[in-house]
Input
Amino acid sequence: MSRSDWIVSVLFVLLCGTVALSANQPARQPGIAERIEVQEARLPQIEAVAAREREGVEQWYQQRRAEVTREVARRAAARIRLSDRALWTEFARMQLDLPPVKGYLDISHLFGCDAAVLRQAMIQEYFINEMADVLLSDEFERELSHIVTEHWDVPLLPLLRDTAQGLLALTRRVRAEVDMELRQLENQKKARLNATMEWERDLKEQVRGILEYLRQSESRQVQLGVVESVGYSPKSGHYCMIEGVDRVLAAGDRVGDIRIVKIDSEKVEFVKDETAWAQKLGAPASPFWR
Output
């Protein structure tokens, strides 16, 4: 189940909860005051679930940020020749005073062709990972810039400078690609947070609508089954509120033996014991509700 499916399910349970039982058995419904208290308690519950969802989005973002950065650097490192990866990795270790590698490529306990193939694969993977770290290092970029701009009287410096210049250009392309990928990831994060905010707002509005309906019910007799209101959500379609039922209902939901078949802007269609009927907004309830 995806995270969005999970939060919708949890929030649905929060809204329906024990009230669904009272809707299925209207004769045992609690008093209006108690029903109002139940709905008021759901507002902080919705806020808590939405807060957990936002926290989960932030954790997802931080994890994907690290993964995306690494993926971009590894792709670039894999395009460099193995000999150059080994050379520049060793150079970076010396210049940046990094600890030596111990035992990573030691497979002397293995013998035969399989050992040779495995060792070659391990070498490739090792230097791709190492070169990825090098390409993401600010210090290494400064060292390359130093090599490219300095004028030393060293015989092999022109060759080194040309190689360093090409690698410096690669590090800058990696950074530009990482920045682009992270901007896309940031947009995904914003979209998820906005969706969570919309869920929280819509559900709170639904609860407030139920509360308004219950408070109005204190001064009049409730007529179970009357279609009190119909609304529309771009995400989930039409929904309705039925008098005597303290929850928002959608097509497919049940109230006792009655199932909601379809909802549109003017009427709601129901079925009970294979008998179907429609009720217009505000019209008297069908006898099937009794």
